[in-house]
Amino acid sequence: MFYRVRRRFDYWRYNRAVAAIEETPPLAIVDSPLRIVSQVAVPRDVRMYLVAAKTFYRRVGHGRFVVIPDRALPRETADLLRRHLDGAVEFLPLADISVGRCQRGGTWERLLACLDLAQRHYVVQLDCDTLAMGDLGEVREAIANNRSFALAEGAPLRSFAETGRLARRRQGAARHIVDLAEAALADHPEAERWRYVRASSGFAGFALGSIGRHEIESFHDIMGSLVGRDRWRQWGSEQVASNVAVANGPDPVLLPFPDYANITPSIELARVRFGHFLGTYRFENQRLARASLPLIEGMRRGDALPGAA
């Protein structure tokens, strides 16, 4: 109970701190095949999403948005998002996304929506708790050259077989589903052909023509048999599947670290150009809000961004 009360207070304090995002001018949309996809918890994450979407778009400079609301979207919220995103937004309700043979929940719907869209568009999956704080040249180049990208923090691209062997060596008492799944990759029927990178699904690029839902449904079935259906359905399995989708895209880009980082207490924000503020640390010392405020103020002033497309 204390955790829930503290969590509500943290969000209240964050949303109060970044309220000025609603006073910033709408984005200037440049239409393109790029689609920027985000799952948004309504109403909790609406302001956080606006900060993430607007700071990212100002650095990338083109494309349209797809918002996946987790529940019925109030008309005033939809109008707010349309106004700030200059009408360049499609709403795709979570419950309307078909999951086929995959599970519901754990952001699997979001991944499948990204893969469906990637058959016609370049797709960026952008979590609400992300922040573009500097130039994103590597991301712009990946999009322009139709290369998938991953926030991998120095992790290399490996075959399933090598990933599984290494995971088994380091596997100790920890039994998180990601660790279990990575260890099981060595037993996958395509272990020598398929590739994997340990990365964050909170920020990922899916190139046009990426592997589709059929391949991920098959991967879902196989992993359920390898680690156990109930274990595979735990929170975190979608991250493994997202990593597989990105790693097996065309010539994937592994974004440099710490320029692109998951934000933990040990990360110096001054060195980060793009941050994913993990839930465990998101509100610690109000780091996300404090990092957002100068960016919001720059939007209010209409500051230009050097290097943006």
Summarize the structure.
The protein has 309 residues and is an alpha/beta fold.
Tally of helical segments: 11
- Morphology call: globular
N to C succession of SSEs: HEHEHEHEEHEEHHEEHHHEEEH
The pLDDT mean sits at: 95
What structural class do you assign from the helix and strand content?
A: alpha/beta
Report how far apart the termini are: 46 Å
Strand content bin:
5-15%
Radius of gyration: 19 Å
Percent helix among the residues?
Answer: 25-40%
| Strand ordering within the main sheet | 3-2-1-4-9-6-10
Largest sheet: 7 strands, mixed
| Strands, total number | 12
Weakly predicted, low-confidence segments: none
Topology of helices and strands:
Blueprint: H1 2-17, E1 35-40, H2 46-60, E2 64-69, H3 75-84, E3 89-91, H4 108-117, E4 123-126, E5 130-132, H5 137-144, E6 149-151, E7 158-159, H6 160-170, H7 177-184, E8 195-196, E9 200-206, H8 213-227, H9 229-232, H10 237-247, E10 253-254, E11 260-263, E12 274-277, H11 287-301
Parallel strand pairs: 1-2, 1-4, 2-3, 6-10, 11-12
Antiparallel strand pairs: 4-9, 5-12, 6-9, 7-8
Helix pairs in contact: 6-7
